[in-house]
Request: fold
Amino acid sequence: MAGFFEKLAAGLTKTRDKFVKGIDNVFNGYTSIDDDFYEELEEVLIMGDIGVNATSTIMDRLREHVREQHITDPEKCRALLLQDIWQQMKIDEHAYDFEDKKTIIFVIGVNGVGKTTSVGKLAAIFKNKGKKVIIAAADTYRAAATEQLVEWADRAGAPIITGREGADPASVIYDATSAFKARDCDILIVDTAGRLHNKKNLMEELAKMNRIIDKELPGICRENFIVLDGTTGQNAIMQAREFGDVADLTGIILTKLDGTAKGGIAVAIVSELNIPVKYVGVGEGIDDLERFSPAEFVDALFLDSVEKK
Amino acid sequence: MAFESLTDKLQNIFKNLRSKGVLTEEDVKVALKEVKMALLEADVSFKVVKQFVSSVEKRAIGEGVLNGLNPGQMVIKIVNEEMISLMGSDTTEIALLPINEITVIMMCGLQGSGKTTTAAKIAGKLKLKGRKVLLAACDIYRPAAIDQLRINAQKQGVDFFSMGTDVSAVEIAKASVEYARKNQDNVVIIDTAGRLQIDEAMMQELVDIKNNVAVNQSLLVVDAMTGQDAVNVATQFNEKVGIDGIILSKMDGDSRGGAALSAKAVTGKPILYVGMGEKLSDLEQFYPDRMASRILGMGDVLSLIDKAIEANAEMDAQKEKEMAQKMKKGKLDFEMYLESMKQMRNMGGLGAIMNMLPGMGRISDDQLPDEKELARLEAIVLSMTPQERKNPKLMTPQRKYRIAKGSGNDIAAVNRFIKQFDQMQKMMKQMPGLFGGKKRGMGGLGGLGRFSGKNKFF
Reply:
């Protein structure tokens, strides 16, 4: 499967613009490691949405390594920095074991991050692997959310359990868990309505859905994915924290990485909350959801332009 | 995570400095470093921060420190003023043509920024102004986007136009204006598909719509949670398509909303409205002063005061007078408690209030008294007779027993509540001055401060 970076380059209609000034410029412009050099490095990290805190942690570590290893060459410093972030973003080798087990995937996040689209894409991935997939459309709030997911389910060729608009989403979950048992499915993917993490009632509603799944399907492997918009800034940390209180998050789906946003906030979240990024969304096609590749992510974070690659 | 507001931080830095007459370069530098961090934490674009901070620096050095302020506060004051002037505009409304002409509004933005919802919200707003609005569905890409708009148009009671997904967005836009003419609509709101600012073909679609339809207002919807990319998005939409105004969506979240500053700074286009919730009525005016406080993490005190005034307006004047009188005398009864609870709910609940207070921006829900707990306490009061409410001293074990039964609590809960109430009454007697505020609205708030205080009461 082509990496998301190649796919990016292949998208001829999309060009990266000059304003995406990358780290290469920083490295090319310096012959020695000094304060200006560090400062500019810091800028690149902050402009990638890594955030003030995570950036200063990373920079402190970098300075220390540079001191310890007596590095004077900016190029080596670059390798060190990339290595460091890569190390942090690395995923466990068992991260995708659930794909071959009986699994319930609970997909949650704030409004407009791409939950429904991601659910459709996940269904297609598992369907292509020959799994028996079933989808639960538990977003009964947003107008036409169910219709949107039905369309995706059609494209993926997976059956879908729906409820009326305005119905209690918990009832959809209940129906879906029953169907999952009765039809002996492999994977149940639950789409939920987008909600801001500071709305207590809506978060309670989510917790209730979570409890129903636990109760109806005990002992079955669970994955709770938070979907984060790659263009989101520091607020994503709050999102991950609050949603993590509702259900133990096992992974992040990072969407909208086909634009100019770098999704650097994921670095901050991984370093602060240790939730791995498992999938990335790189387009609107049904196949545009891929397993997360730390190496490509770090490259993209620091690369000037597609053409350069 | 303990949250230290910018004001607190600066207060600490300048603890040992007394106001020295004028701001020195050193004062300004130290303070601006913190300001810079706060702005970056709020997701204001790095480049905008740099420019902004350097312009503030120039203005601030040598400026006289006002009486009663320390240098840090003075810098904040200047920063605040500069931000307000940067974010504010003379334009605060969508420019509409006279009522006998058709105003065409085009929505644009990234995927998931909230265009469709915002389109419906604007439609409702303009309908209230007496316009006849048509919502035109030009998102032919996202599954069910058309259905979403149709349902929202129904809910808002405005007209709806669609040609399915087989016709190009440009054709639909053209036809919608024709339809509006026949249907006597005088506003057409074109909802377009979400698109990336670097997707040339999709950006061209917007340009084509503008070339074929006389679009009067192109509005860019920006998610308040957007990070550093906000600058790229705003710049590109403005350069390629040309925008007339910005709408910030999802402001009911707890993001600091630095994207507002970035988008305004790079485009110079006015921020018109903010989206405050999922209900179709939740579209509010943009206030640069409130936004500045929010970005700086100083809480939205102004909004709070506003809400207090609003909530108070519902309480009739006579009642308010009585309440203020009682408070002055340090007399607190259960009726006042009920009234305060009602006011609090009118202001959006305790959580909403806390979020607007400086330094409380990041208080989490579990640090607040549970709303259910509050409801239980309210039930206790509601189970009292009017006499008991007015005169807490009447309480006897028999009465308490009856109240407990009536409100579904055990007697211990009732005892606890009444005891805490007593304590609070004593406290109020000790500081009557605190509650005798002259300003409308603050009387109620003073009381609220007690109720929401650090678990004293609960």
In short: The first helix of chain A runs from residue 4 to 10. The beta strands of chain A are 103-108, 133-138, 160-161, 187-192, 221-229, 251-255, 277-281, 289-291. Chain A touches chain B through 52 residues (CB under 8 Å). Chain A has two domains: 18-89, 97-291.
